[in-house]
Amino acid sequence: MLDQLLDSSLALSLKTPLILIVLIALEAVLSADNAIALAAIAQGLADKQQQKNALNLGLLVAYVLRMSLILAATWVVRFWQIELLGALYLLWLVADYFLTEEDETHHRSLPFTSLWQAIPIIAVTDLAFSLDSVTTAIAIADDLWLILAGGTIGVITLRFLAELFIRWLEIFTHLEDAGFLTVGLVGLRLLIRVINPSLVPPEWLMLLLIGLVFTWGFSQRRPPTVEATETAATEPETVPLSKKD
């Protein structure tokens, strides 16, 4: 009897960190497309410091919304209307982006006149993305604290990934478009799940499609700006000192 109790407690102690690792890996993988979307949204603010502030405050609100979603998940999954709203919101975001004209730097960022316009867009976008990842997490883990821990780590990962993508958006020509294409893929998947769950594409296929879109996004670098070229041209060349004989 004691041996059985010890075996069961050992199994539980090994199972808990294993599930947590799986949840963290899942959040990291699913955060990539979310991060690039949030980075592209933050680029609607011209000032770099405002972009960081928008991500910080937007993801703080997003964290509260995501934790609320996890706590209310068993209630939320009963209402297909919530997933429909999330799908329509993501598809609207994509349409709004691609219908926006490019500026002189060939950017198509969503235009914001203030920081407080960007924050709710970032928070609600993360919530719409979370509708899919939270459902997956609940299917893997039974313990609420594990799902909350995975969600917390996911938001932290998302913050650092988004800042990294903001830098890459300035370097790669197609990356911004690729980010919003992945938003469209997630929105379509949510919409299909509402219409007919049996037609929902498997997770591996979604990851493959997102991987292909990302590959295209990183396929071409932007040409150097005029300012960067002029700066490089005006910098004095350093001549190495010859060694004395």
Category from helices, strands and their pairing:
mainly alpha
What is the count of β-strands?
A: 0
Mean pLDDT: 75
Evaluate the radius of gyration. 22 Å
Distance between the termini: 87 Å
Shape from CA axes?
globular
Describe the sheet with the most strands.
Answer: none
Proportion of residues in helical segments: over 70%
Total helix count?
A: 9
Task: Classify the beta-strand content into a percent band.
Answer: under 5%
List keywords for this structure.
globular; 9 helices; disordered N terminus; mainly alpha; 245 residues
Tell me what you see in this structure.
The protein is an all-alpha fold. 76% of the residues lie in helices and 0% in strands. The chain contains nine helices and no strands. It has helices at 2-42, 48-71, 73-76, 80-98, 115-140, 144-169, 175-195, 203-217, 226-234. α1 (2-42) packs antiparallel against α5, α2 (48-71) packs parallel to α5 and α7 runs antiparallel to α8 (203-217). The longest helix is centred in the N-terminal third of the chain and has 41 residues, at 2-42. The protein is globular and about 50 Å long. The model is unreliable at 1-12 and 226-233 (pLDDT under 50).
